[in-house]
Amino acid sequence: MNPPTEIRIQAETPGDSASLFRLLIDDKVVGESLTAAQAHLLVGEILGRVALPGHGTISVDKLSASNDE
């Protein structure tokens, strides 16, 4: 698998930085309705996988897990 050439975060409501976000990798939507924190964590996970490949898949559901766990 080739590393991504572009990672973008877009506000789901253009011009509203307080809205939810979508994450695109090489123009393919890989996450929608993300909070800013979720988008930030997911980008970190992606970059970590580029640096250290072979650590399995990334689940957006894990980012939504409760802090009570």
Written description of the protein model:
It is a single chain. 29% of the residues lie in helices and 25% in strands. The protein is of the alpha+beta class and 69 residues long. Strands 1-2-3 form a three-stranded antiparallel β-sheet. It starts with 6 loop residues before the first strand and ends in a 6-residue tail after the last helix.
Helices and strands in order:
Blueprint: E1 7-11, E2 21-25, E3 28-34, H1 36-51, H2 60-63
Structure summarized in a few sentences:
With 69 residues, the chain is of the alpha+beta class. It has helices at 36-51, 60-63; strands at residues 7-11, 21-25, 28-34.
List unreliable stretches of 5+ residues.
none
What would you call the structural class?
A: alpha+beta
- The percentage helix is 25-40%
Order of helices and strands: EEEHH
How many helices? The count is 2
Rounded Rg: 13 Å
Report how far apart the termini are.
Answer: 33 Å
Dominant shape: elongated
Mean pLDDT, nearest integer?
80
Q: What count of structural domains?
A: 1
By DSSP, the count of extended strands is: 3
Strand content: 15-25%
Walk across the major sheet and give the strand order. 1-2-3
